[in-house]
Amino acid sequence: MTIAPLDLAALLCSRVCHDVISPVGAIVNGLEVLDGEDDAEMRAVAMELIKKSAASASARLQFCRLAFGAAGSLTAAIDTGDAETAARAVIANDRTALRWDAPRRLAPKNTVKLLLNLCLIAAAAAPRGGTVTVDITGEGADLSVKVSAGGSNARLSQAAAAVLSGSEPETIDGHSIQPYYTVLLARDCGLTIEATTAPDSVTLTAKRASASGGAAPSSRTAGESSRV
Question: Cα(203)–Cα(225) distance, rounded to whole angstroms?
């Protein structure tokens, strides 16, 4: 799978805009109500909408800064505690719980970006809610990152499943760019992504490829693994 650098940048920017446009639009709607409404109750409702939407927009921007942006110098290490805070603000809600089992540490920037992007894929795999669990084990060549999602009818989207299995998608678009970028991050970190699915659960593991190299990636049935 290949994509021109400018197209990659444009699609990632579109993804960020997609994540932020909803709360920003809600802020605009709330301000319009305040501007034309005299009823005190309606103004209170509008103000509450603005506060919640502003907090949501800020949380999503903080997350996107770590997951997609530079977030400092190119060689900087990132505190995984900051990553946990950003992920919790975006993922954890009334329907979805985030269980962060990874110890706090300084980790290479792209490793943290990979972790957060795996969190996005896992959270999207449980649209009805559930639990997203994050774990980091090992150091250096033994480093392994695992993110799982459990919930009613949890499963990978068609776009994510295709990209993570190594299948060539018909096109790289706004739906597939984020998992595609996740694969690029894993390769840059020298890791291989394995996606394991079972009824109501998805597990994404990024770890060092075996010394033997293994077989070429392929799509697998539920309960088996796909590696890319």
Answer: 9
